[in-house]
AcrB/AcrD/AcrF family protein (Cyclobacterium lianum), 140 residues
Amino acid sequence: MKLAFVVLINLHLALIGGILIVYFTSGIISIAATIGFISLFGIVTRNGILLISRHEDLRREGKQGLALIKEGALDRLNPILMTAFTTGFALIPLALKGGEPGSKIQNPMAVVILGGLLSATILNLVVIPCVYQLVTGRNK
């Protein structure tokens, strides 16, 4: 149950970037932007699960403390970055077509996902391992 709490922190990390980018672009959270948030939450939850599962594997292998945090984050850095980059590159054309006809749904959705991915990817590799250590109480 504690680990589910740690994974769900990712949603807040994504929300930071998603809300900030909406604020600085259109300022409107539309239905399309809400769909973007839902998609974004799925991506960042997957990244959190990847990270926490690696930390749990390392803990079972006997790692503790800073070694566990560092190794777990570095082991999952590549898969998390690949997920973020491939999703981001696919959404850039949709985000850039803001004023064109037919992009009223695609643009806000893509902008929210891009902003949230940026904040969640950066913060995921720093915040989640630290919270994992605090929640599990393994600060040895």
Remarks:
- The mean pLDDT is 89.
- The two ends are 22 Å apart (CA to CA).
- The chain has one domain: 2-24+32-136.
- Residues 65-96 form the longest helix (32 residues).
